[in-house]
Amino acid sequence: MKNTIYHNPRCSKSRETLKLLQDRGAKFEVVEYLVQSPGKSELRELCRLLGVKPLRIVRTKEDLFVELGLSVDNGYSDEQWLEVLTHHPKLIERPIVVIDGRAIIGRPPQNVLKLL
Question: Is the pTM of this model over 0.85?
């Protein structure tokens, strides 16, 4: 997987993380995941790089989570959570940064310094 930031320009943490990477001269691709939604295999790979189950990258406090009737205790499998994220990218935690085959969530933005 190439160096990438999964970015939402409307999110202040995502903007701060992007600026931090740019200020450090990091080379990466910007993927606005609300426009260019990652597929299941890409999300599966991001989870593998992060070392987490798909549920850990779901924004459970997002209004859409409740509107869809979702619950962390609903018994969904990893594949079902990946399916939810594929169809509702707004629920993907942000920003996710991948550099040199390692990934981290930029919350707080300084987390990404561990990858540089």
Answer: yes
